[in-house]
Amino acid sequence: xxxxxxxxxxxxxxxxxxxxxxxxxxxxxxxxxxxxxxxxxxxxxxxxxxxxxxxxxxxxxxxxxxxxxxxxxxxxxxxxxxxxxxxxxxxx
Length: 92
Known about the structure:
Elements: E1 2-5, E2 9-12, H1 18-34, H2 37-54, E3 56-57, E4 68-70, H3 77-83
Parallel strand pairs: 1-4
Antiparallel strand pairs: 1-2, 2-3
């Protein structure tokens, strides 16, 4: 799966990591629904760090279609709300 972090680039991520990422996504979604800005910041940072750690960065010149687009680390709660689907940022 090709994942883009807005403002950073793309990484290739094995499907076996989706369970870990979905757990963070579920936590992020719950914090957003509660309006927990501090928890949102912490969990968004953890989610992005996990994608960076688990994924293999693609070269900057690679222009692969992204299957998943995640907000950058400075995204606001409202900006991320606009990106959400019913099940969060990550399908599944």
